[in-house]
Amino acid sequence: MEIPVPYKVRFSTFDTWIIILTLLVFPVGGLLAFIRLASTHHHNKAKGRNLRLLGWAMVFSYISIMIILYLTYDTFGEEEQIDYLTSGIVLAIYWFLPTLIFFLVGHRLDKKFGSLLQVYQEAVVSMRLTSVEQIRSLSQTSPADVTRDLTFMFEEGLLPDGRIINGTVYIQQQALEDYLSGEYEEEYDDEYDEENDEEYDDEYDDEYDEEDSASDENDHGRPSGFQSPVSGQSSSPKTVECPGCGARVFLGTEREKECEYCGNVVCA
Fold it and tell me: Taking the model in full, what pTM does it have?
């Protein structure tokens, strides 16, 4: 399965309500948009979405302001029309510059996140890396980012069914076989809801605390039905820059590999 680039995290129901409130009561909607950014921006998956949300909040705030400005006129003759249009143009010049920046940076962050998801997919499925520390070194992110991002990929169906326990990635054996054989089906929720995300985290913590996991795990410390895909794991994975297009090409045990973007052969 190929991760789309740029990968855009979808707006949740809560995000949609923020945009609606921005149109109806723009100070409240704008405040909620900034609170949304402050509370979730440490997640890689949320960075592009947050800036796109701010961009749309700015757009609908402008519309709301122009409606309010129109309603302040008792009459709307030729002089009032000129005054209204002049005010709208001046406000748009200053208003839409940061809005454009939000959309452009959000797109860039979505693209960066899509590339990062491809790194994770290559590390877990192709290289069969199981250590969060190894994946962190390969992706040049923090262990916390790796854990959050891989959990997101498991939930969104971007990786075979799996979970992370004590810094080790475990993949459901049958799901991995189906994934590698091309029979794995993508299952995406219609909406990505932060409340569901929090509920999942709570259920995950309750289910896999230290006392319960002791009875569920086998002698090797992994949950029954799951395995750590260690076959073919490389102790020192390499990332080589393609001399043709500059893309990052991942080499496991291979000495050379064809770049999937331009076709040049990259050697270790």
Answer: 0.64
